[in-house]
Amino acid sequence: MSSFKPIKSICVYCGSGFGDDPIFAENAVTLGRSMAERGINLVYGGGNVGLMGTVAQAVLDHGGYVTGIIPDFLKSREKLLDDVQETIVVPDMHTRKRLMFEKADAFVALPGGIGTLEELVEQMTWSQLGRHTKPILMLSIKGFWKPLLTLIAHMREQGFIRPGLELNYLVAERVEEVIPMLENAARRVGIVGNEEAIESRF
């Protein structure tokens, strides 16, 4: 049982920019290296810019496997990394997000902008509605995700996140905690991505 690896791939959502603090990129590098060293594949948005490109390059630099999924209209804006083992060009954002979901065992949100937020919240919504049990984690470097956590608490207090429909997510403040937290959650809950198998709960 000790050789069982519950997480074989992680979809990382993060900014196409670097942010104003070098610590964001440093954490992206550390996460990418940790994934490669543990044999965990990266699924990401396909570009070479910002934190997206940083985490992907770190995985590649340490011998890991990367799957990039990018919509056709972004190919000219975000140059693809040449060494990525698998690049999938899709017609639109909806197809991209669906493939990222299907190819990942877990989701990690690093700091980013509105696109990162949208992808993170969508996975939280799908989980809340019983579409999957894959772990979702926010890496809250320097408290980056604290305002979102405050908003979620406010929604709960105002009765919009009701008992029985709680949000399932993890929050790590240190990059070293990310993979152990995901693996513990996967062992505890199991990973189900087949909505027919779990919608019977609702």
Automatic annotation (TrEMBL):
What is the superkingdom listed in this entry's lineage?
Answer: Bacteria
Enzyme class, broadest EC rank: hydrolase
- Which SUPFAM superfamilies has this protein been placed in? MCP/YpsA-like
Q: What is its EC number?
A: 3.2.2.n1
Write down the Pfam families for this protein, in alphabetical order: Lysine_decarbox
> What Gene3D superfamilies does its record include?
3.40.50.450
What reactions does this protein catalyze? AMP + H2O = D-ribose 5-phosphate + adenine
Keywords assigned = Cytokinin biosynthesis, Hydrolase
Record family assignment: Belongs to the LOG family.
What is the protein name stated in its UniProt record? Cytokinin riboside 5'-monophosphate phosphoribohydrolase
Q: Whose protein is this, by species?
A: Microvirga arsenatis
